[in-house]
Amino acid sequence: MSKSRLQPPRGTRDFYPEDLRRRDWLFGHFRAVARRFGFEEVDAPILEHEGLFTRKAGEEILEQLYRFELHDRRLALRPEMTPSIARMVIARAGSLRLPLRWFTVTQNWRYERMTRGRKREHYQWNMDIWGEPAVTAEAELIAAVFALLDAVGLARPDVRVRISSRALLEETLVQGTVLRDRPEAFPALCVAIDKFERIGEDGVRELLTDPDGSVGIGEADASFVVSWLGLRKLEDSAEHVPAGSPAYADLRRLFELLDAYGLADRVVFDASIVRGLAYYTGIVFEAFDAARSLRALCGGGRYDRLLESLGGPSIPAVGFGFGDVVILELLSDRERLPECPRRLDAVVFALGEAERPSAIRIATALRRERNWSVELVLGASRLKRVLADADRAGARFLYLLGPEEAARGEVLVRDLESGEQTTEPISD
Ligand code: HAM
Description:
It is built from 15 helices and 16 strands. By secondary structure, the chain is α+β, with helices and mostly antiparallel strands. It folds into two domains: about 5-335, 2-Layer Sandwich (BirA Bifunctional Protein, domain 2); about 345-425, 3-Layer(aba) Sandwich (Rossmann fold).
C-alpha cells in the first residue's frame, strides 16, 4: 500500500479528540446563537444529484464540484448548503409558515486551490430566512453574525461586515446603457467582477469585454464597472443610480436598522463586495478581519429568484454561510482559541478481579445517577499507572476499590485536584 493511502486526501482534515472538542465548542456557539435568534436546525444529505448545482454563469464553485457517476446517476458532494435547503423548501412550500428561519451546520466539499483558510472540505454554519422581502431580514442575519463573533471572544474592532447590493449595480447597468439590451448577462458579470482580488483589474476587464464570453460589454462600460468597485461610500453611488432607486433605499434602511442593533461602527458600505455565486439578487455582505489578512469569515446575501430557477414557487430568501476554518485561524492569530480540555469526572479502578463486579456497579451508578463521565479501568494495572493516566486525562476523582475497602463495603474516593481522600459506602 502506498504511503499516501494512509494520509487523508489533501485539503481534508482528521479530527482527533482535541480537534473535535474545539470544533464542538465552535459549533456549540453556532447553534446557540441561531437558537437565540429563533432559528430551527435542518439537515440534508451530503450527496445530491449533480443537476441541483448546475448553473450557467461560470461560477468557480461548479468547476470545483466533486462529481461522479454511479449506476447511471450523476451525483455530487455538496459544495454549499443553499441549493439543498432550497430543495427542501420547494418540497414543502405549500405548508411552511413564512417567514421561515432555518439554520444548518454541515460539511461542504470544493476542489479548491489551497491557500491559508481555504481547504477542500470545510464546515459551514448557514442561517437563512425564507419569505421575507424586507431588509429587516438582512439586519437580523448580520446581527446574528456579530452575536457569534462576540460569543467566541473576538474584540469589537476585530471584524467588520462589508455590505453592498447587487440590485444597486443591476439597476444602474440595466436601466443605464451598459446592460440595457442584455439584462440576462448580469449574474455572469457579477461572477466575473467577484474575481477582482485574484485576477486584478486587467483580468476582470478581459472577462467583461471578451466578445465570446458571457458578458461581452465594451471597454468604456467595463471601465465604469471596474470604477464602481472602488466606491466606499453609499452616497458616492447616488450620482450613478437611477432616481428613486429601491435598491439605494433598501441599503439606507439596512444601515439605519443596523444602527438600532448597535452595530453602526461595525458595518461599512463596500461596492467591491459582489459575491461569487450567481444566485444573489440584492444585498450582499461579507465579514472580514480588520487587517484583511484572511479571506472572508462569512458571506451571504439575498437570493430572491433561486427557488424559481429550480422550478419552485417564488419565495424571497436571504442568508449567509459562515465557515469554520477562517474563524479558527483568526482566533488563533488573536490568541483567543480556548483550551477545551477533556471532561472526565471519574476513573473507577478495581485493584483485583474480586472487586471488579463492585467497580462495575459503582461506575454504572455514577454514570446513571450523577450523569458523570466515567472511565472504568478495564484490565489489570498498577495504581501508579492508573493515577498518572487519570491525571493526564484531567479526571476529577479516582474511585479505588481494594480488598480492604470492599470488605468494609466502601470505596476510596480521591479528589485528584486537592489530593484529599474520603470514602463512600458502596451501597450509596
Ligand atoms: P461562500 O462565500 O461560498 O457562500 O462560503 C461562505 C463561507 O464559507 C466563506 O466566507 C468561508 O468562510 C467558508 N468557505 C467557503 N469555501 C471554503 C473553503 N474552501 N475552505 C474553507 N472555508 C470556506 C456560500 O457557500 C453560500 N451558500 C452562503 C449563503 C447561504 N448564501 C445564502 N445563504
